[in-house]
Amino acid sequence: MKPINVGLLGLGTVGGGTLTVLRRNREEIARRAGREIRVTHAAVRDMDKAQAYAGLGLTLTADPFDVVNNPKIDIVVELIGGIEPARTLVLQAIANGKHVVTANKALIAKYGNEIFAAAQEKGVMVNFEAAVAGGIPIIKAIREGLAGNRIEWLAGIINGTCNFILSEMRDKGAAFDAVLKEAQAKGYAEADPTFDIEGVDAAHKLTILSAIAFGVPMQFDAAHIEGISTLAAEDIQYAEELGYRIKLLGIAKRHANGIELRVHPTLIPAKRLIANVEGVMNAVLVKGDAVGATLYYGAGAGSEPTASAVVADLVDVTRLSTADPHHRVPHLAFQPDQLAALAVVPMAEVETACYLRMAAADRPGVLAEVARILAAQDISIDAMIQKPCNEGEHLATLVFLIHKAREAAVDVAIAQIEALPAISGKVTRLRMESLA
Question: Is 205 a catalytic site residue?
Fold first, then answer.
């Protein structure tokens, strides 16, 4: 049978890994796909650096439009990242009747609705397994493996940079800034780590997962996003004393009136498996009504782990390229005309348990004042610890764990607590999830 010809847009870490895996496992992949999958063209920025991959029928070009407009290419693999020119190139490939495989989570999260509509009209596929959690086949698991379930919620550690930083802060008791520099030195964090440490990267991935889990359009702009850059080492220590670990979680939950879509540092009971995912590894916990809770764990980034997902998409497209478009797996798991109009629930209406830390004057009555404010907002206290003042100081550290309460009520309570004369500075608030 005629081979499938693939054109790569980008031949960096993931592109190089994809080419390596396709060449190394060529026979095995052909046995699975039913025909040979070969990369014939690649668009690259650095021609000299890319020469290491040249040969064996690979043509290099500096112009990505040479790839997307080449009539001999069946599948375009977009691995350049970012929004532009990636969006223009992907839409051009679709307009030319080519299937697309991408690892670009930002592109799919922000423009997936437009891209999938264009692909539907042209009868081509857009696969994006590598856009979320690297080598973990989480999209296929939710979209196909859990197709018989009504997904109730999912929660994921989906940014390896943040997970490495939090793991190191807990293990070493180090401050955030020091561990970030270590992560950059090891290549786990970019020179400009903003997208990672401020939660934007995780929010892109969560947006994609929620769309597949609940059958809704991409709604990245409605996601609540908090990062870990202001997290203090003492909070990680106190959480540990209370039996919790802090992880940056992407959380999506279904409700009758909409979905929760939020990324933030989260206290998780230390006994949960996902709380013990360390270093740069990723994990996603998915709760279905029939199957219960399922956990998916593995490398969330890296050359060959991500290439594993890209090649799996190439195999899927190859298998289904001649199938009736109406009989293919829908991009967002549900048929395009069956997507639900569920909006994202405003954060003020979300209910979560919380960890509250504050510095308070070490005198009688302060605890009672704080408890009174919480009670007035119908917030009950689950646990409390008090750390004594250091020698020569007059401020004690108070940590409260509160039961589930509306975010708006907690906001009011925090503002009133911070206004007390006995309270110094801001109240630190971290949300908690039992993930039971």
Answer: yes
